[in-house]
Structure formats: structure tokens, C-alpha cells
Amino acid sequence: MSIYLMCLHNGTPIFNKKRGENIENLPFSTTASLSSVHLFCQAQTNIDLTSTQFDDGLILWREYETLLFIGISNNLSEKVLASLIEKAYYAMVLHVGLNEIKNIKNSDRMKRELKSTFYQMIEKLMDFAENDLLDYNESILCHEASLIQQKLNEFCELPIASPFCFMLTKSRLICASLGFYDLHVTDRKLLILLLTQLNVSQKDIPVFLPHKSPNIAYRLIGQSLIQGVTIGLLCGQQKYEDLEILCQDFWQDSYELLVKAEISNPRNFPQTIEFDSTVLGFLLINKHNKKYVISKNIQQVASKRNSHRMNILRTFFNEAVDLDNFKNSSFYDSSIENITVNEHYYVSDYHKCHAIIDENYILCVLYLSVIPTYAMSFLTQDVLNKLLSDKSIEW
Amino acid sequence: MSNASDCSFNSYSPDFKNYIEEYNGSSSLIYIRAHSIDHHHQLKQSLNTDELFRNEFKRMSLRQRDKGILSKFTSKKSKFDLKVVERNVYSHDNGRAKELKIRNISFKENKLPKPRLNDHRSLFEIIFNASLIIGPENRKFIIDKINQFSIFEKDLNVGDTIKSINGDLITVDNLNHILSKVITQKYFKIVAEESCKDEYVAMQEEIKITKVPDVVTFKDKLFQLETESHELIFSLNVIVKNEQISEDSDDYITVFSYPPKENNFLHKLKGSFLTIASIMKNTFNIYPRITNIKVHNTIFYVTYTIRNGGNEFIFLGFNSNYGGSFDATHLTKNFVKFLDYIYPNFIIMNDFEQLNSFCEIVKMQLIKKNSDAINFEQLFSCVKFVSLPKEIVLRINDALSELEAMDYRNWNESLMELFGKFSIIGSCLYFKNSLICSHFNEIDLENVDLFIRHMCLKFMFERCILKEVAIWQRVYPREYQSYNMENDSTKNKVFLLIVSNGNLIMCVLLEENSFNINPENIESQSSNYLINFLFEMKDVLDHLKMVGIENLAKIWINSAKRPLCKNPFEPEISKKNQLQLKNIKEESEDDESDRDFDSHIDGQSTRQSSSGGFENEDLIYKDFEDIIPQTLTFGADNVLFHFTNLDFKEGIMITSLCEKYSIPPNDLLVDIFRRGCLNIHNKLQNTIKFNQILSRENRISNNNKTAMLPKEQAMLCEVKWEKGILNFWIIGRLFGIKELYVCHDARTPQNMVEIAFRLAINCCG
């Protein structure tokens, strides 16, 4: 896989990033030509050049305010590349705010204003583009989540008085306050990504929330509670040192809970739940809260193949389950009220995948290829029941 | 069903023979005779084809004919006792209107007439003894014929337009309903407008096409399409590098632009497309395939075909309101392939009039598509194939082989010369738009089908009555097995000949033997031979028609019973049909004596008219008697809704037949099915690509490691509609490079993969 992501302001590059094995930097002449082609089309009675496809790849042009983003990839679908470009733009808003982007007077100054965390975020987004669901937040399932959630709600109300708190373990959400889930999923995604990029000394940073507050900055505070567990919160004027003490005091009697939650990594769901031996992995999506759990290690065998399985599940979701051609499509027959797709499956030489889609959840399960096709539907339903029937797992 | 086949072949006059006498022997021949209106096309009562399948064949052979000695026995007075009691004539802006008040004397006894298989009259004709034709766009109902004893005999004339009955404006949809209501009323009123003679004559007029631009000239009459639109729907720009300045220069000139440059904004953007192509080539060593641009909220797809080392560019533009990017990609591939087939090099030719017409034809075909409807299987270059019973296929094969061998009748001097002059590459036979027999390899078959598609013949079959086609055209197949040792079609002469008779179309590909070419007067000499050959083809078609192949193909295709597919959105249909069947049975018992008499006479007539053909015809019908509808699923209910089999290896496509007017409309299900297929097809293509890479290289690249490579993919759809909830599966499966798609009810307990297997092993037919 290779990705090129470029951002230009009036033909001047703001950044130019690449990702992939053995790929070379694009010469400036190429970037400039791609930018000028877009400009030329726009000069011709407002024609917007949006994309060009070639064998196994595509180029996308996206214009946001005064910026032109160009993305080139040889393996990503149009939907994923467009989402990556959008996230890159919002990451810029997160750092400098919308007003700044609307009124860029000097591109060099803009480049200086974008802190190193911005570039790290772009690189991470590009790394994750293929292996992540960019429009969802990754989380874990654990028995301790409901207790931690109660504690977090108390923490939000009394000492901190911030509605936006979230608890992470290795960049995955354990739980979050209701206010945090009210934020747009992109805002949440970028906050989580930013928090995981911040180094030890820099845990207090101003952020513009691209959807909620693109022009007025909030303070993002990150506090490590134990190794591997971090709490993030958006707050007002309090001193960082005070907040640090407050956090440690409040959570010190819950360390045991946090440790238990942390060891759910990398399994990502409780040890007590067991599935059929043909199940290799699953991807569970909460449609309402826009979050997902992916398990790569059901049989507890650590091997290289595990990440491969995760990627297959994500690809299955992106390319087959998350369909566009049934959504928003007008059928000429007025007797039709609604068309939904409730199940999907595919069979390959190496494995099988099955997905169930209900009102609130989507579950994609990866199976060994030996499983009979007709049995997958029952087993997937069984996996869904086991994951959601446990009351202690609040998700 | 079109009525083209209903015309007696006695009345069929081979007009193209007359045309040939005037023909000046130029480099190609196009002669198409078509009719824009379809007599009482949609007014017929729907007959149950489900339960009557077994008997239909036999009865078809005994169908009474309109002409001949039988007419005096068969013209009867209408069963309905009607009388005009009041006449009013009044004037209005568009002319005069007549209002007839009709007394229905036997209104209490009247009930809806029971449909009879051998009665092909419309309800209007049964009641009033007068027939209607439908005007352009189904807007007007014009009286075509007033029979003896008709109540209109004194008051109305042929050409008058029926406007309303009992105050209700009549339409195609409500006419039968209104009629069924009024026959039970004591009095009712009919309002008719006096005819505009010119309009009626114009509608009756036959359309003759002798060159490609004629199709465009007569498009309104032929297809009743409203093509006057200011938006850009389709565009073609051919751009070549200007090498006259210098070899290294980047100066490009436009060779052709459709629509003309001044109306074609995509032509103004050619610089952008050239730049993108150049960047892609220089940076990634690859050419772009398709560029999307957005103009005032409308997306346009611009496809690239780049040739001659990047010196020739063909840009085709498509409006997204008339098709998606999938459509654009496939239409481009097909159109360019077609142009390559009929021109040695269309980029350097001088006369662009014909090319302009072909662009217009593509535009027309885009317009006809409902913007909401999805195209899928019809976009591929696979030919829609219908597998007829073996007995029929054998007869067709015999006829085609005889033509190819040219040994089927007494030799004479001109035939001897013809035999030495040409070698036949292959031939095929279509029934309307469906291939029923082919002696071509897949490449030739694909090319011939693209030719028929782009010459608008398929579209004409859909929209109007195609009475006669005679075409010969020199073609330039890129890959073919030449009889002249050298496989270069620009040096050898290959000709495509097409002749139609009724609904049958025959295509033959010929190659001129190089050792016989006379350098003097080559063109006219060849054309004379080719015209002779067209006559030979015509004879074969006459023979096929005479032995009943056309009728049998029609019945077979319209019955669509092998395998039988169910339309889930028409749940009431089977009940209704059962009722109809019962009525028909009762009717047949009542009219037994009548019918026997008719049949007897009709049999005589058939024997007289078809002379030697009757014996064959009868034999074939006998073979059909044992054929029963075939269901692929087990259990009492048929749970198979739809299927499509794309065989890229053979170049054919088999799909459940859903032609309008032949089976209940299945449009909604087909639309949902195609949306599903489109999604699955892209993934199955990935697998084919991956397998090809794997066969070349042992190592799997990183790009393919996470790719979805299914050999079977499926989705379960739930449709909420006014009658409840319906769940069904859409499954796509890959067999080598063959793709099979099945749609079936989700409630079935069977392992439906078996169905896919049975279909893949050619269970159709």
C-alpha cells in the first residue's frame, strides 16, 4: 500500500506526506501540476475536479476553505481515502482553528504554527488508514467498564465539572462520559489520537473541536493513571498541577479495577466469554455511539496472522457491509417503504466472513473455511448474544 | 409482445429486394424497414401462461389467420347488444368532437368476457367490434379498423380518437377497467375526436433506413424519445498529437468532438485530462481510466482510452444522471470496441457524419434508461442467450450449417462463383434481442452483438416493430482466424451480413478469398456477391419461419418457464391465473363444436399456405407437448426469484427473462437484485485479478494481503412494502471466470448453493 497526502495553499505546499514500502517522494513539479489542473478546472465555469481512477488506485482532490488537499493511493477505496483527507483537514482545524485557516496570510507562518503533534497525527492517520475504521472509535469490552463508568461520571460531576471525560487503554476507549459521546465522532477520534501522541511532558494542550467549537479553543488534559491507562478531559481554567493531584486522589482506590481493565488488551473482550472453535475473530460496531471492538486473538495464539485477520475483518466491513448503493437510493416504486440489508457473508479459499446488522449493532465474524456456510448465521447470532447479554459489560 | 411476428408470412413482402435494384453498389448496405406503432399492443388481456404452458404450443399451430378463406366463417357479431341512442357533435379548439350515448340492451347478463387463448383481440374489439391503435407515447387511442356490425359503423371513422368513456379520460392502464365497468351499465357515453388525417397517415407510415444517420433523423418516430435537452449527456473527444510541428512537441489537435466544440464544455477541459494522463504516465508509469468532475451538482465521468504510445486520446464523457461510473466504464469499452470493429482506424478517417450518428445513438440509449434504474448485466459485452430445446437447436444448427456449407440447393453458376469467392467464418441467429444459436467463437460473437447494439437494432426491437433488416458491412476484427493465412483484417476483406425476417435475425461473417480478388471494380463485384448471399440468408430465415421456429422461440422465451422464477411482489398472480384457467376450461367446453370446426378449417388453411412446411411444424409441436415448467427449488412453492449467469468465457449471458408484456413486471426485484450484483461483481473481479497475479507470480504482494477475495458473496435484503416484509438473499458465486447470481426467498430451508450449481451446469432450457 502507498499513500501520498498533500496540502497546498494557493499552490504553495503546507505539507507533503507519504506512507508505504519503497516509495519515493513526489517531485514538486508533479504536486504543482496536480494542483494547477484542479485550479484550471475551477477557472472554467466552476467545474470541480474530484477524482481520477487508475488501475488499483486513485487520486482525490478535496478543497476545504482556502486549502487544497490531494490524496493518492494505490490500495485504498475512494471512501477511505476521502475520509483520510477529511480527518487530515480536521486535524489542522483542531490545532489552529477554523478562522486561522480561512485567513491564511503567510503559508510559512501557518507551517510553523502547526505543531509537531499535527504532523505525528497525520502520519498516524495514514498508518491507520488501511487498518482502522476512520469513522468509528476503537474501544474494548470488559466487566470492569460499568464500575469505571460510574466512577467516571462522579469524577465529571464533582471535582472536575467537565462533561467531556474519557478513559483510554492503549488508545482504546474503556468508557467515556455521556457528554463525550455527544461530540461528533471525528472530534472524538482526533482527541483520542492527539492524546496518544502527546509525550509525557506535554499533557495540556489547547484544541479547537472541528465540529463543536472550531473557533474557540478548549483545553485537553491528559493524565496517566497507571501504566497503559490514561484519562482525558476537556476543561476550563484550572491549573494543570491541581488537576493532576485531583486525578490521582480520586482514582487511587480504583487502581485494581483499572489494572483488570488494562489486561483485557490485546484480547479486547473478557476472558470469561468463549466462542466456537471456528471463530477466528470478530468486529463489533455500536452504530449509535460510533465505536467498535475488534478482537484479533480469540484463540490466544499470538502470531503474525492475527493482525492479518483484523485487516480482513475491517476490509470486509468497509467494502461489503458498509454499502452505499442501498442507502439513500430512490426506488421508483412508491410501494417500497424501506430496503435494508440484514446479513452479509463471503466465502474465500482461506476463510469465511459473516455479518449481522441490526438496529443498534453490526457484528462481523471471521471463521475458518471449514465451517458450513449455512451454519454461520446461527454462530454469528450466538457470538452477538454472548457479547451483549452480560450485564456487567456496559457498551 | 410485438406484433411483428403475428403478421402472416404470406403477406410479408421482401422489400429489400426492390431496394437492391436501385442500390448503386457502394461499400456497404443498410436497409431497415420499421414501423413506429404497435397495433393493440398493450390492450390485450393478460393470459395465464403458467398453467397453460403445455397446451399453448398445440393451439398456436391451429391459430386462425386473419386472411384467406376463413375470414367469412370467423367474423362474428359482437356478443354485446349495443345501440347508439343519441349523437351530439360539438366544436372545440382542436376540431370537432362527437359524443355518443350508447344503450346497453343486455347489461344485466353482461359479464367480462373470458379470455381465450386463440382470441388475440382486445377487450375494446370484443365489445365494439372495432380495433384501436395506440399513438405516440401511449397518449392517443385511434380507431384503426371498424368491422361489420360495429356500432361505430355509421358514426365514427377510421382515424378518430377515442377520448373518454363515461367522462373518464382513457389511458393504457385504465381502458380495460373502464370497459369492464361500462358493460354492466344500461347507458354510457363515448366521446371521440374527429381525426386529423395527416397525423393518422404519418403514424401508419413505414420508416425506411438506408444509412446510419437516418436512425437519428427518424428517432422521434421510431422511439418516441424526447431528446431535446440542453444538458450534456454524452460526449466524445478524439485528440491526437500534432507531429507536424516536431516529434517532441506537446501540441495536440482535436480530430473529432461530439457534441460540437462550442457546445461541449468537456472539450474545453481537454487540457486538464491530457495533463492528468501525462502526470500519471511520467510519475507512476500508468494511464488513468476515469476522471470525475462536478458541474453544478451533476457529476460527469470522463473515461480515457489512450493509444499509440500516448499520441492518441479518446475521451468519452457521461452524465451521472443517466448512469454510474460502472456504466461509463463498460459503455466506453463497448463503444470503442465497436468503432474499432467497423473502421480500420476511426481516428484518422475523414468523414465523421456516421461517427456523429453513432454518438447520437449512444445518447439515445442513455436517455431511454430510467435514471433510477440500475444497469448491470446488459452493460457487459456478453450476449443474452436463450437455450431452446435440443430438438429446435438441432434444426437451427442444421439450417445454419447448410448455409455455411452452401450445399443446400441445386447448384447454378452464380452460386458456384459465390462459393469460390468467400469463406464463411461463422453465423448466428437471434430471436429479437436474444441469441438462440451461434456458430461463432466468443470474440466474433461479442463483436457481432456490439454491432447489433450500436446499430440500434436491439433498441428498435424494444421500441418499435422491425419489419425487415438487410445489412452488409465491411468489418475489421482485430483477432480472428483468417482463411487467407494472414490474420490482418485491413489486408483481408471481412464482411458482416445481417438479415432479419420478423423477429429472427441472422448474422453471418464472411471473408473474401484473397486468390480470387479481381483488382478491377472490386467493390461493386463484391457487393453483388454479398447481395446474393443476403438472399440466401433470407431463404434460410423463410425456411426457419416456415417450420415454426420463430413461433416456438417466441412461446419459449415469453413463457420463461425453464427455470421458473417467481415474482415476490406479485403474490396475487397465481390465484388470478388459476381463476382464468378455470374460466378458459369452461369456455372451451361451451365452444367445443365451434372450435373444432374452426380448427379443422384452420388446419386445412395452414396446410395449404405452408405446403411442405406443415409436416415439420407439426412434428416440432409434438415434441413440445411434454415440456413442463421446471422449478429448481424443492417443495411446494417456488422460491427462486431471479438469476443471472455471466459466462465471460463463452461470451454469453443467461438470465431470467423479464421482458415487458411477456411476464408480470418484475422491475422492482430486478432493480434491487442488480444493486446487489453490482456490489458483489466488483469483489469477484478482485478475486479473478488476484488469481491471475498468483498464477504469474508466486509471491503475494502486500496490496493483496488484506484484499477481500471471495469466491462467493451474499447479502440478505429486507424490503418493507405495502403488503408486509419480504426477505430474500442475493448470492454471487465465481466459477473460474464465470459469475453466477441467484436471488431467492430467505425462508427456504434448502441449501441454495445447489441451485447455483444446477444453474451453472446449464440447467436453463
Automatic annotation (TrEMBL), chain A:
Domain of life of the organism encoding this protein: Eukaryota
FUZ/MON1/HPS1 second Longin domain: residues covered: 162-252
Pfam families: Fuz_longin_1 (PF19036), Fuz_longin_2 (PF19037), Fuz_longin_3 (PF19038)
InterPro entries named in the record: FUZ/MON1/HPS1_longin_1, FUZ/MON1/HPS1_longin_2, FUZ/MON1/HPS1_longin_3, Fuzzy
Localization annotation: Cytoplasm, Cytoskeleton
Lineage of origin: Eukaryota, Metazoa, Ecdysozoa, Arthropoda, Hexapoda
All copies of domain FUZ/MON1/HPS1 third Longin, residue ranges: 279-390
Protein name per its UniProtKB record: Uncharacterized protein
GO BP, one annotated term: vesicle-mediated transport
Organism: Polypedilum vanderplanki (Sleeping chironomid midge)
Automatic annotation (TrEMBL), chain B:
Domain CCZ1/INTU second Longin: 424-529
Segments forming domain CCZ1/INTU/HPS4 third Longin: 638-759
Cellular compartments per GO CC: cilium; cytoplasm
GO BP terms, alphabetized: cilium assembly; establishment of planar polarity; nervous system development; vesicle-mediated transport
InterPro entries per UniProt: CCZ1/INTU/HSP4_longin_3, CCZ1/INTU_longin_2, INTU
Renumbered residue ranges of the record's region Disordered: 580-614
A Pfam entry, by short name: Intu_longin_3
Polar residues composition bias: residue spans: 602-613
Protein name: Protein inturned
Organism expressing this protein natively: Polypedilum vanderplanki (Sleeping chironomid midge)
Lineage of the species this protein comes from: Eukaryota, Metazoa, Ecdysozoa, Arthropoda, Hexapoda
